[in-house]
Structures are given as C-alpha cells and as structure tokens.
Amino acid sequence: MRDPDDIRRDLALLARIVARDQSALGELYDRHSRLLFGLILRIVRERGDAEEVLQEVFVQAWTRADTYNAGLGSPVGWLIGIARNRAVDRLRSNTVRARAEGQTIPAPPVETPEAQTSTNELRREVRGALASLPEDQRELIEHAYFEGLTQSELAARFRLPLGTVKTRVRSGLLGLRALLQRSVSEL
Amino acid sequence: MTSAEHEELRDSLGLYVLGGLTSAERTEVEVHLATCEECSASVRALQMSANALALTVDPVDPPAHVRQRLIQSIAAPPISSDVRHGTLKRSNLPPWLAAAASIVVAIGLGGYAATLRGQVRALEQQLNSAMLQLQSNDRQMAQARLVVADAQRQLSVLAAPDVAHVDLKGQPTAPRASARALWSRSRGLLFAASNLPPAPAGQTYQLWVISGRLAPISDGWVFNTDAAGSVTTMFNTPAAMPAPTAVAVTISPAGGVPAPIGPMYLVGSLN
C-alpha cells in the first residue's frame, strides 16, 4: 500500500517544480525513475528509446506540473499515465517506421504474471490480481496497455466483435479494481 | 441522454482510459463525462486500475546519464510566452497547489516574475535607446548622402568639358552681393552667391537665363540664402535650352513666376 506520506512528499515536490525548483525535479526523478523506466522499457522494448522517453516524461513533468489534478489520482499515477502514453506513442511511430523500412517488428516479451519475480508486497498483489482475471479479459487489457492496441486492432487480433472488446476490457479493469481496492486506491 | 446511450458509453470507459478509442468516440465520451458524475467516478476508478498495471513490471535502474541530461535540459528552459510578457498567470495554478503550498509558490513565482519584469524593463530601455540611436544615425546618414550627392553633381559641372562661366555683380538693390554661374548642357547649372540680403517674407530669389534677344528662361529656378546671405545650389537645365549669354537674379513671389518682375539683384554676362 502506498504511504500517504509518499503522496504528500510527491505533492510538495510538484509544488516546488511549479515554482521552478530544479532540485525538486531531481528528487522526483530519484523517487520514481526506476518504476517508470521499467514500464517504458517493457513497452518500447529498446533501451535507447526507453531512455529518451524517460527523459521526455520528466521534462513534461517539469513544464506541465501545473496541469496535475489531484482529483484524478496521485502524482505517481499522473507520472505513470504520462510515461505509458509517451511510450506507446514511441512504439507506434517505431512500428510505422519499421513497416515502412520492411523490417520485422520484434515480438513483445512473453511473460506471465506468475513467472515474474516479485520484489514487494504491492507488486505481488497486483500481479496476483491480474493473473486471477479471466484469460480473455487479461489478454485484452495487457495488449491494450503494453502494446497500445486500439479497439479495432484488438478486435482484429482476437477475432472479436467491437462490443465484446469494450465490455471485456471494462469488466477486466473493474475486476482489478475490486481485487485491489485498498492497495491501489492511491494510484 | 437515454439510459441505453449512457450504458453504451459506459461500456467504452475501459478502452477510454487505455487510449484505445477512435478520436470521435473519445470526444463523445468526454462530452458525456462533463455531465455524468457516475461515469466520471468510474473513469477515475478505471484509471487507477490501469495505473496499477505499471506495477506488474519489474523496476529497472535507468543509466545515470539520463538524469544528467534531464537536469541539463531544464537548466536553460525556453521562456514561456507568459514570462516574455512579464507576468505569470497565477490563475492557471491548480487548486490543489493553492491548498498544498500557496505561500511558498506565491513567494517563488512572485519573486521570479518580479525579476523577469525587471529584466524585461531594462531590455526594453536598452532597445529603445538603441532604436533612437539608429534612427538618428539613419537621418545623419541620409543627410550625408545628400551632401555627397550634391557635391558630386557640383564637381561634375566644374569638371565638364563644355562648362561656361558667368560672373554676376550685385545691383543697387544688393550692392555687396556677388555670384558665379557655371553651366554645362549635359550636367546642369551650378549657382553660388554670397552677401545677398534675405528675401522678404513670402518671396524668393529666382534665377533667369538670358540667351540673346530671347525672353528670359527660368524653369522654376528659385532659391533662398542662408543667414549669412550665401547659397550654393544646382539646377537642372533642359537639354534643348539655348546657350546663355547672360544670367540674372530677381525677387519673385514664393514658387516663382514665368517672367521676371521687379528689379534685378544680380546680373552678369558670359565671360
């Protein structure tokens, strides 16, 4: 579970960032760059790209800290959202370029939640919750989140009607929410 | 909004938070969210679930140079348009910030804005004085160019192979006055006079070219003297003008007249 003190600390850092305190951005980076770099690397799959995207995320945090809305989640949740969206954008543009150049796209890493090593209780809990979702919901959610597939791409990949894709994704996320009620309430 | 439409949009919210909708659908959802508190709350909950997916990935230490580049890249930030105009928009600060750290931020931003305003004012002053200097330099340069051009024309008359000289003497109306006219058919007429009395108000001196028994010619050749009674000036003369046998100066109403009136002030014959 995330400590409310962690959130307060992040909020104070964002306030200092809005006031143009460069050292506050360094502190925010030190607190969250490992988490975000792991996520970005998982999505873009290439280290050089991942490093650039990580830098972009914190530059955006520096320039757009005033747009953070506490009503929509914690600061780390805000950073995760930025990192995930930027990583997916990079993956898509890489994919378009690779297709244009006739290259093959490397397959995403094959990982099952059970196979991953857990480093702390929260991670174990989230992975356990994801693993416990029905397979047909979990795979849609993972492909949407980590590969940035759109609903029509998901429908084509899994040969499903659009309506089914929508309801399964929503049901899966709601299921995760129910399983992680306490743990992710601050994300 | 019917309940069927509400349910259809509600089903889209999972893909909405994962960024998987088309832009048209996304807009439709956002319009709905603006008025549906139930769906807005649902989006917040779904977003937290989506964020939790990040925790299923193992953290990885980024290389140290990423942090170094980041700090370097923000060390010299581009000046935003708000700052350029010397103010920072306080109204853009989010409410949470006001609650969390209003005093720190107000002092921080206020100080920053004041510093920038001072810098902008100083730069504006420097710019203004540079502009004035530049304008003054431009005027001086333009005047200098005119002087040089005039001198070149006068020199060209003096150096012309067909130049003709006429020395003029002061008449009883201006006994101390004297003048010289130099004429070249191709380059014009150079006229220099000294010790002329100032022309009466509303009147001007006018130069006439006399060629034998023909009527005196003046193509608007009017002039005034400086405070010392001197003048040096150039007049263009028509290529078909008969060669002068004499040159005279009278006083005319401002702008000149087609035929001389009144007494002559200066007169001279071809040398």
How is this structure best summarized?
The complex is a heterodimer of chains A (187) and B (271). Chain A is mainly α and 187 residues long. Chain A has helices at 4-18, 22-44, 47-64, 75-100, 121-131, 135-147, 151-158, 162-179.
Layout of SSEs?
The complex is a heterodimer of chains A (187) and B (271).
Chain A: H1 4-18, H2 22-44, H3 47-64, H4 75-100, H5 121-131, H6 135-147, H7 151-158, H8 162-179
Helix pairs in contact in A: 1-2, 2-3, 2-4, 3-4, 6-8, 7-8
Chain B: H1 3-11, H2 13-17, H3 23-33, H4 37-52, H5 64-75, H6 81-84, H7 95-158, E1 164-170, E2 178-184, E3 188-194, E4 203-210, E5 222-223, E6 231-235, E7 246-253, E8 264-269
Antiparallel strand pairs in B: 1-2, 1-8, 2-3, 3-6, 4-5, 4-7, 7-8
Keywords:
heterodimer; A: 187 residues; mainly alpha; Rna Polymerase Sigma Factor, Chain: A; Arc Repressor Mutant, subunit A; 2 domains; 8 helices; 71% helix; B: 271 residues; alpha+beta; eight-stranded antiparallel beta sheet; 8 strands; 45% helix
